[in-house]
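Q: My labmate handed me this sequence with no annotations at all. I'd like to see what the chain might look like in three dimensions before we decide whether it's worth expressing. Could you predict it?
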Amino acid sequence: MRPRIGITCGYRANERGAGHYTALDAAYTEAVRAAGGRPVLIPPVLTTEELSEIVAELDGLLVSGGPDVRPHRFGQEPHPACVLMHERRDFVDFESLRLAEARGLPILAVCLGIQELNVHRGGTLYQHLPEQVRVDPPIAHRGADGFSFHPVRIEPDSRLAAVVGPHPIEVNSSHHQGLLAIGQGLRPTAWAPDGLIEAVEDPSRPFVIGVQWHPECMTDRPPHRALFEALVAAARG
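A: Here is what I predict for the chain of 237 residues:
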C-alpha cells in the first residue's frame, strides 16, 4: 500500500470575488505520488478534533511552502515586508506539526515549512533577509521573477547527506525570511554561501528534515527527488 502523506495547504482571499480558497502547487502531490506515496491534502479550515482524526490516519507529513509565519509566535512585531499567512493556515500548520510529532511521524518541511518547524520548536526567524543579513557579495535568496539559484554546503555526517549526498548541491531559492535562533532539538545541516542555514534535522527522530529550498520543483534532479523518496520510505517503514 502507498503510505499516506498529509500535505498542508494555503488559504487566502479570492482575488476575483468574495470568500477564500484553498490552494496547493500540484508539484507537491506529484512529487509524493512519484515517490510511491498517497497525497492527503490537509485544508486549513479544521478544528483540533478534525485535525486529530486526519493526522491519526497519516503515515507522514509534508509541510508545504507559502507566505510568512505570524511573528507573534516568536515574540516579534511584523516587519513591513512580511506577507502573513491567514490565521486559519497558521493554526492548522502548527497544530499538524504538534500532532505529527506526538505520533512520531516522518516529517519533511519545505521553505515556509522549515521556518514553521523551527518556530514550533521555539526558534526565531530573520523577518527580512535583505536588511538583516548583509554579506559582500550578497546572495539572492529570491529572484526578481520567482526562483534564484545558489549552491548549499551539506554536513557530511547528517541524515540529509545520507539522502541527497554529502557534496554541495544547487538549490532553487524563493524566500525573504530565514532561520535565526535554532529551535530545540534541531541540528543545522546545510548552509548557503552567505552562511544562512538552509536545512535542519532532528537527530533523535527517525525522519524529521526541513529544507529552505523547493525540492518539489526540482524532482528531475536525483538529490531533490530523493527527499520525497526518503520521506515515503520512512512513512512506509
